[in-house]
Each structure stands twice: as C-alpha cells, then as structure tokens.
Design goal:
The complex is a heterodimer. Chain A is of the alpha/beta class. Chain A has 5 domains: 131 residues, Rossmann fold (3-Layer(aba) Sandwich); 176 residues, FAD/NAD(P)-binding domain (3-Layer(bba) Sandwich); 57 residues, no CATH class; 164 residues, 3-Layer(bba) Sandwich (FAD/NAD(P)-binding domain); 55 residues, Alpha-Beta Plaits. Chain A is globular. Chain A starts with a strand and ends with a helix. In chain B, strand 3, helix 3 and strand 4 form a beta-alpha-beta unit. The longest helix of chain B is centred in the middle third of the chain and has 18 residues. The chains are: A alpha/beta, B alpha/beta. At the A-B interface, helix 4, helix 5, helix 16 and helix 17 of A face helix 1, strand 2, helix 2 and helix 3 of B.
Chain lengths: 648, 140
C-alpha cells in the first residue's frame, strides 16, 4: 500500500469560501493509504510548498495529491516540489477542486461533498501511478515559417539572424503578403512598399533562409523538435536563374485574366510577375489561365524568350524537410464579395473594398496614385466610406470587430483628401476604435485637418441612380436621415482568416477558434503558441491585427521557436501507451486507430514508439483485451476513480 | 415533503477541450448543479465502453462523455472513434433496457464554458424525473 499525502489549498477564499477545506482534509485522512492530510491557505506559496517537502520527508510519503486549482496551472509547480523532496514527479497528481468545484457551486455542503469525491478519486489514481522519467529526444535545429507576409518575413528574419536555418514557405509567386499591396500605413503615413521591400530583399539574400515561393505545405508528421514536412513546389515553368526580366513574354501572351495584386482592377497575362519588386524577381506561368503547355496550343512566350528561361516540362516537386519548430503566419483575406451583397459590393464597379482603394492610392497602382473611378475614370468628388461592413454583425456576418478598419478608413479618407482637395469624404461608423500609439491623434487629424465628415450610423441602402451611387443612411447623433449622391463607396470589409487556412490547420493539427482564426494556447498567457507544442502563431492568422501588432507577435513567435531550437534535447511526457505482451494477440486494431502512427506490429505483437506516442489512449479503448494501456491512466486506475467518485 | 432526488453523474471529460471548457466555466464563475464528478481523461477516444458500464454498475444515475468538437480533436481523430463507439454503447444500453437519457455525449470546446454549464444543467434536469438508476447497479 502506498503512503499518500494530501494537501488541500484554501486559495484564500477562492476554494475555502464554498468548500469546507478542513472537512476535506479530515475526510481524506480516513481514506485508505492516506498517511498525511492537511490544509493550508496557499499551498502554491513558498511556505505551502515547504509543507509538502517536509511531509514527504517526515512521513516518508511516496505519493502526493494536491487539491487545488486546475492542473493546467500548478501541476508543474507541485510536481517540481515533490521532485525536490526526492519523489518522482509522476507520483504527484492534482485534484481540481476550484475551477471544477468551488467556483461553480454555492451550496457549501454539496460543494464539500463533491470536493471530497474528486480528491478521493485522485488518491485512487495516484495509488497506482508508476514512477516515470521524461522521454528525451534530439532537436532538429531548423525552423519552418508558413506564410511570407510581414509576420512571416519578420519571424524568418529574427530566426535567421539568431543563427538558425529557416525555410520560408509562401504559396503565392512572391513574398510580401497584403502589406506590399498597401499604399501608406497609419499612423505615420510611411510608404508601405518602401518599408517592406528592404526586409523582402534581406530575406532573399539571407544565407540562413531558404525561400520557397509558389509552394504549399502538403503533409506534416512528427512532433515538437522533430517535424517532418512535405512541401509541394508548384512549377512556375520559368527558370529564375535564366530569366532576365525582359518582359517580352507578357507582350505576346494572348491571355488576360484579373490581376490578383490589383484585386481585379487591372488585368494580367497568363505569364506574369506579380509586381515589379517581387521576390524572387522572376516570372510565373499561371497554368490555370494558360491555354496549354503544348507548343501546338500556344507556345508564344517560349518563342520570344531569348535566354530560353521558359520550360514547359517543369514538374511539381515534393521537397522533404526536417524542422524543429513551425511558425504559422498565414494572414487574412477580406470578407468574400458574395457574402456582402447588401452594399452593392461586386455589383457596382465603383463600390470598392479597402484593399482595392489601397491600390488606387498606391503610387505603383493601376492609376499611378490618381484616384479615379473604375467605371469611367473620373475623379470622384464625393466618397462614402462604410466601416464595419461585415464586422460586428452577429446576425448576418461576423460577430467580431476586425480591428484595423477604423484606422485604415481614417487613413483612406485622409489620403483621399490629400489627392482630391475639393472632394468630400464621409465615414459611416458604429464607434471609432483607435486604441494604439498615436492612433487617436491620427483620427482627429483626419477630422480636424482634412475635414472628413464622420456620421455615426449604419447605411441602409446603396443603389445606382443617374451615374451616382445613392447612399441612404442615418446619423444617429442628430437623428436625421442622410442621403448622399456618392461617386464612390469604399467598404471596410471584415477581415477573415486567409482562404485555405482551415485545411492547413488540419494538416498541422492546430486548433481554430469559432471564426476560423488559429487558436492560441491561452488567450492571455500563451498568445503566440498554438495548442500543439512546437507550433507558433504570428500575425492576422490568429486574429485581425495591424502591422505593428503582427510584427510584435512575429518576433514573439520567433523567440518562442528559438527557445526550442536552442535546446540540446527536448523532453516528452512519458505517459505513453505500454503493451502487455502476454495479453496482446497481434490483432492490429490499435495500430489502425493510432492517430500518430506510433504503433506497429512486431513479431505478431503491438509495439509502441514512445517518442511518437502522445498518450491519447485511443488504442487502449479499442483493445478488446486491455493489452495496451496508457501509463498512469490505466483502466484499473479509471475504474478505481469511478468507484471513489460514486462511493459513500 | 421528500427531498428531491439528486442524480449522481460521472463525466468523462477530455483534457484539451471539455475539461478546459469546464475550467473556463469555473474561471467565469458560472454556476451549475454539483451532481457531476468529473474524471479528466486525455481524449474522449480513450473512454472504453467498460468505463461507462463500470460507472453504471457502481451506481451512477447518469454518465456523460464530453470531447472536442468533431474535427477539432487535439489528437486529430480520437473523438471520431469515441463517437462511433458511444453510438454503439448507447444502442446496447437501450437494448438492455436502460433509459437512453442516462447516457449522453456532448461536444464542448475549451472556449465553451457556457455550453458546458448548459449541458450539465440539462442533463441533471433530464435525470431527475427518472429517479435512481437500478438496472445496471450492482446489488449490494
């Protein structure tokens, strides 16, 4: 029989307010195998931990149960405490009597009874715990960053400048993400391209960064410190080493399709360079719009290519890499046009989204920085900006706030006025959310210096009337109906996770929140980690973010990745599956259900790869003979726990 | 007046979603009935049918298995196995004559403290009119 010690925490009044902690300790002291039971006001405090250490030594305890808060908080604390007193860390278990008991009940008698049951159940578990040592595994000192926007670029540079090798994977033909599409950035009005391109060049020239554009992560296996990645490198049909960027190919290409970089405001050829500063600086042949790779179908580009850079025989390539940590920075997309039809978005050519307006403002954009209506190329004199188009609308669209729109709308309206001095900008808003350094001042500048007219209210209807776009709305501050004959409408559409992020999340086995953004491990204390260890989040893939926030998080994610890559060895929880060879019949059912391919059949018996096993226990529930069990959570232990939960 | 029947419930909660969801209910101080004794397991996929029979055998009036939403399993697909297995267990329990309401499965994510609270409240309300479970209880 084991000698178990029980320590019941008051947590001030957090637990003691609803649970009679003295009674819990008293009841537990009568429990079989319990040789020590006491309560203390804060067991996690230094004196509290010393109580445990002394009891282990004095009473020769061989197992410990701390009845306190959730194991997600102090399990490590108390396991280390037990270890420092000479106990194996896995002989210490937590009974959660706070989150799952004292905080959710009011009746002291009932809560106390429940706390006693929970603690007894934990005692029954720890009684059969094995002493275990963490499994040590080597670390591959290389990282992968998925997504080549500003967040991915920043993470890759931080990692590379610390001395670690980085693979930067981007699915588009060039890195740069959405930031490279922007004109100026708030609140300083820095030219977006001017501040981003030096970083892009640094990425392309960095000896530690392997840049893989036009590539997608196809498959991933392994675990923290030792991931195996398969990356699909799509064929560009252009050899970047031979291409001289002479641009002859685009002159002969007969195909015109909407240009993604200008969000459809211009066209591009099937063979194209996304934008002049693209990294890598080379052309890409878009096979989806190309009439065909056979010379009989077209072949004009290859005919005119003097350096012979175009290779129609290029094949997709699967590149296998091993990395120790992964940063996911897949960014955002704007709310789909089809989902936001009420504002005439996608129906009227002069109703634009924020990114399209950025392109109109951009010096390198389709109009060379002149603001012109897409429909008739006239300068718009009245422009209506509509905030929260799709955001903060739980009935019809997204419930959340897209966060960046208040600021970029102020910027848009301000820049519009800088371009069109005699024009008028109107902004329909719900609230102005300008939290951030110098942000509020920036909004005030738009209102005071540039005469942007802010109207608090929503727009009810937008329709075309005599060459104008009629905007009906209401100003809730004056209570008056508003009717504006606008020349252009710009919608601050909601920010959504980028398309395909959900599929990637499934491949990486990282969780998403209810809106499809990647879920952080803890909303406050672990904001850059995903729930899967070794995978980190950066930028708008996690939640809508502006550039400074994305950059800060990217550096944070890089630092977190470095904390893994700089280790010699990593330690893996030893609570893994174990096979009882005498009971195993080699039926292989466990091998089939294992999500991690950690099981195999060897000489007609199941065998566990302890490094791959995550201890989920699916095998154990599948085995008909209880021949495979997870250490320290065996069916026998669960059975004892059930008994203690229901007993008395 | 006789005291109201208080069902005893054992809840198998997966560590990553449902147990975390119940922790969130705690952090948010959402009150719910104290009838449930939670047992945190690594994954709903690790809940063997034997655990469920064992709980009824030892006197549980209701058993809940709660895991991550389908597709969101921390262990990729453990909850799919749980879902299949539990559907079979439910049929078996009905076949032997146990009231189907006594055994339930729910999907509660780590962000769904409110949902966890509601699941427990509803479960307790459904069990109360049924009275004690005697069908599978071991005769003392």
């Amino acid at each position: 029989m084991k000698r178990t010690g029980i320590f019941v925490c008051h947590c001030g009044i957090n637990i003691a307010g609803t649970v009679d902690v003295k009674k819990v300790a008293k009841e537990l002291s009568k429990h079989k195998g319990v040789v020590h039971a006491e309560d203390y006001v804060y067991v996690c405090s230094d004196p509290g931990q010393n109580i445990i250490i002394n009891a282990i030594k004095e009473k020769k305890l061989d197992s410990v149960v701390v009845a306190c808060c959730s194991p997600t908080l102090h399990e490590t604390t108390f396991r280390n405490t037990s270890k420092s007193a000479g106990l194996n860390a896995f002989q210490c278990e937590i009974a959660n009597i706070r989150e799952q008991c004292s905080w959710v009940h009011k009746d002291m008698e009932k809560a106390t009874d429940k706390a006693i049951r929970i603690t007894k159940s934990t005692v029954q578990r720890v009684r059969r715990n094995e002493s275990l040592e963490p499994i040590s595994v080597p670390v591959t000192r290389k990282a992968m960053v998925i997504g080549g926007g500003i967040a991915g670029i920043q993470s890759a540079l931080d990692l590379a400048n610390t001395g670690f090798e980085v693979i930067l994977v981007e699915r588009a033909p060039s890195i740069g993400g959405h930031m490279i599409q922007l004109s100026e950035t708030f609140p300083t009005l820095d030219c977006s391209q001017c501040i981003l391109t030096p970083k892009m060049v640094e990425v392309s020239k960095h000896p530690k960064i392997k840049l893989m554009t036009y590539s997608e992560v196809q498959d991933i296996s392994g675990y923290v410190g030792n991931f195996k990645v398969k990356i699909l490198k799509k064929p560009t049909y252009v050899d970047p080493d031979k291409c001289t960027l002479c641009d002859e190919c685009t002159k002969v290409c007969p195909v015109v399709v909407p240009n993604e970089f200008d969000l459809g405001l211009t066209g591009r050829r099937a063979i194209y360079i996304p934008f002049p500063q693209a990294i890598p600086a080379t052309f890409t042949l878009d096979i989806k719009s190309c009439p065909g790779l056979l010379p009989i179908a077209c072949g004009k580009c290859a005919d005119v290519c003097e350096p012979d850079a175009i290779d129609y025989d290029m094949k997709p390539e699967i590149v296998e890499e091993e990395v120790g940590a992964i940063i996911v920075a897949t960014g955002y997309d704007l709310y789909e046009k089809e989902l936001l039809t009420e504002y005439g978005y996608g129906k009227y050519p002069d109703v634009l989204d924020g990114l399209q307006f950025e392109r109109l403002l951009s010096a390198s954009g389709p109009t060379m920085g002149k603001i012109l209506r897409p429909s008739d190329h006239k300068v718009p004199k009245e422009v209506v900006f509509i905030q929260c188009a799709g955001s903060r609308d739980p009935e019809l669209h997204c419930a959340y706030c897209s966060k960046i729109c208040c600021m970029y709308t102020a910027k848009h309206a301000m820049l519009y006025k800088h371009h069109v001095h005699d024009g008028q900008a109107y902004v329909f808003y719900i609230d102005i959310r300008s939290g951030g350094k110098d942000y509020e001042e920036f909004v005030q500048r738009a209102v005071e210096n540039d005469g942007v007219l802010y109207l608090r209210g929503k727009v009810s209807k937008i329709f075309e009337d005599n060459g104008k776009i009629k905007v009906w709305g209401v100003d809730t501050l004056t209570g008056k109906d508003i009717e504006i004959d606008a020349d252009m409408v710009v919608l601050a559409t909601a920010t959504r996770p980028s398309k395909g992020a959900d599929e990637l999340a499934k491949k990486l086995k990282i969780a998403m929140d209810k809106d499809g953004f990647l879920a952080e491990a803890h909303p406050k204390l672990r904001p850059v980690e995903s729930v899967t260890s070794g995978m980190f989040l950066a930028g708008a893939a996690q939640a809508p973010k502006d550039i400074p926030e994305a950059v800060a998080q990217a550096s944070g994610a890089a630092a977190k990745a470095i904390s893994i890559l700089s280790q010699d060895r990593l330690y893996h929880a030893p609570t893994v599956a174990k096979v009882n060879i005498n009971l195993c019949t080699g039926c292989g059912m466990c091998v089939q259900v294992c999500p991690y391919d950690a099981l195999s059949l060897k000489d007609g018996k199941a065998e566990v790869n302890e490094v791959l096993c995550e201890g989920c226990g699916t095998c154990s529930a599948t085995c008909l003979r209880a021949a495979i069990q997870v250490k320290n959570m065996t069916p026998l232990q669960v059975n004892e726990m059930i008994k203690a939960s229901l007993g008395g | 007046m006789a005291e109201e029947f208080e069902p005893k419930i054992v809840a198998f909660l997966c560590k990553w979603c449902s147990s975390a969801g119940s922790d969130l209910a705690g952090v948010s101080r959402m009150e719910y009935p104290s009838n449930v004794i939670p047992i945190t397991v690594m994954c709903s996929g690790s809940v063997s049918p034997l655990y469920i029979f064992s709980a009824f055998n030892k006197g549980a009036d209701g058993v809940l298995v709660s895991g991550c939403h389908p597709g969101d399993c921390h262990y990729i697909k453990g909850n799919f196995y749980a879902r299949r297995r539990i559907a079979l267990v439910k049929k078996l329990l009905e076949y032997v004559g146990l009231e189907p309401q006594r055994f339930q499965m729910s999907w509660v994510s780590a962000a769904e403290g409110i949902k966890y609270t509601q699941v427990i409240k509803d479960f307790v309300q459904e069990l109360k009119p049924l009275g004690p479970q005697k069908k599978l209880r071991r005769i003392q």
